[in-house]
Design brief:
Layout (H helix, E strand, L loop, with lengths): L4 H60 L8 H13 L8 H16 L5 E5 L7 E8 L3 E11 L23 H29 L7 E8 L15 H7 L7 E8 L12 H5 L8 E6 L6 H4 L7 H21 L7 E5 L7 H5 L5 E7 L22 H8 L2 H24 L12
Parallel strand pairs: 3-4, 3-5, 5-8, 6-7
Antiparallel strand pairs: 1-2, 2-4, 6-8
Helix pairs in contact: 2-4, 2-11, 4-11, 10-11
Length: 425
């Protein structure tokens, strides 16, 4: 028996209504899902935008503030005393090896994974560089800060370079001052990063990657040596990974006996008639490249431009930011080499050498150049006497350390390459 037409129509209508309801429900659900997705996207983009704005505000804020903390010169001097206490750090000696172990342990205590660069020469069977790294936003552009931990002793007058019986040196000034400063700068960078994380919940990174290095075998081994010098930094600069550039090398070798250290009576009696010892920054030349050209360097326009920028950057930090007196703290062309910065400049990288005391070397009869380098007098007590006591020496170290901290902070701020036009060279 066939259903009545009215019943069929009613069932069909009910079916259509059910289908319509399901479609409406499906459309509503789809709409809700789409709307929720849209709202989620809006929220996500808003959060990212806010995070981006917050990061930009933090970056702008960082550019306006000084370093949150500064180096501690008393700690640096403590490390100088420790390095001196190891004894005569001539290459391939127990004192030399113990000093290297100390440097490695200090880096590791600060939280660094230390790269140990082993190398050998005719005279050195166990030479080692120690390098600690702060990864920057650019992993292939490095700013390197270095000092050497080996020491030497030989004759200084008439005939230079003769080792004689009993000639030993603590290497307090040459160059425990540089190595201890490298350790302090490495500590300071870690401290800044921890403060940024604790106070601002941000991961603080400098723009460049920073390398803190303690070099081995910087010292010439005397007139009987078949070798030259500077092998530690040379090993580093000649084994750079492919694609890496050195944005700047900063050499720390014999400083601390510099402004505001006044010349003491012992210095005045020996002929020095100046009020203070200088802090010199011997830097990639702007005008006189002859020393490097004579040794085979093809000086390019890019090298000249980088040298000019570096001298301007240093001048700005020293004389504009820190207001150091330009008479006693001086940036000038490097025309002598004589330390690890040579290995960088001679390969085309911009570099500077922080050097205290006076511009000329003892062998040029400069009566104000009284560095106790390469001699039994390179002891902590002698350095203190030249500085008028430990407090005077700490004040001299503070001058260089604050300049170095300002340079580091400049890179954290992202303004390393943005030197004001009124910077004082």
């Amino acid at each position: 028996m066939c259903p009545l037409p009215s019943v069929v129509e009613e069932q069909s209508a009910q079916h259509m209504q059910a289908m319509s309801a399901r479609k409406v429900t499906s459309i509503l659900i789809t709409g809700i899902v789409v709307l929720a997705g849209f709202l989620a996207a809006v929220v996500f983009l808003s959060i990212n935008w806010l995070d981006s704005m917050e990061d930009q505000l933090l970056e702008e804020e960082l550019k306006e503030i000084p370093p949150p903390t500064w180096p501690i010169p008393s700690d640096v001097v403590n490390d100088i005393e420790t390095l001196a206490d190891f004894g005569y750090r001539k290459i391939d000696t127990v004192a030399h090896s113990n000093a290297g172990d100390f440097i490695q342990f200090r880096f590791e205590d600060l939280g660094y994974e230390v790269e140990v660069q082993n190398f050998t020469t005719e005279l050195c069977e166990d030479c080692r560089n120690y390098v600690a790294t702060i990864e920057g936003e650019n992993p292939d552009s490095w700013i390197v800060v270095g000092g050497h931990y080996d020491a030497i002793c030989y004759s200084q007058q008439i005939i230079i370079g003769i080792e004689y019986p009993g000639c030993t040196s603590q290497g307090a000034y040459d160059d425990a001052t540089g190595v201890a400063s490298v350790l302090e700068l490495a500590r300071l960078m870690k401290e800044w990063q921890q403060l940024a994380w604790d106070e601002l919940d941000i991961e603080l990174k400098p723009k460049h990657t920073w390398k803190f290095a303690a070099w081995d075998y910087e010292e010439w081994q005397g007139s009987g040596s078949p070798e030259g010098a500077g092998y530690g930094s040379e090993t580093f600069v000649t084994t750079l990974p492919d694609g890496v550039e050195i944005a700047t090398y900063i050499n720390l070798d014999m400083y601390g006996l510099n402004w505001p250290v006044e010349t003491q009576l012992v210095s005045q009696l020996s002929g020095c008639d100046e009020d203070y010892f200088h802090l010199y920054l011997f830097t990639s030349p702007v005008d006189d490249w002859s020393y490097y050209e004579d040794r085979g360097l093809n000086v390019t326009d890019e090298m000249r431009e980088q040298a000019t920028l570096l001298q301007e950057r240093l001048g700005f930090v020293l004389h504009e930011e820190l207001q150091y007196p330009s008479e006693w703290v001086v940036v000038l062309d490097d025309t002598k080499g004589n330390s690890d910065h040579y290995n960088f400049i001679s390969r085309g990288w911009p570099a500077t050498w922080f050097r205290g005391m006076h511009e000329y070397l003892q062998e040029e009869d400069d009566t104000c150049e009284q560095s106790p380098k390469h001699a039994p007098t390179d002891r902590v007590d002698v350095v203190y006497s030249l500085a008028g006591g430990r407090s005077g020496f700490e004040a001299g170290m503070q001058t260089g350390l604050d300049a170095l901290a300002s340079l580091m902070w400049m890179d954290v701020q992202g303004s390393w390459d943005l030197v004001p036009t009124d910077a004082a060279p």
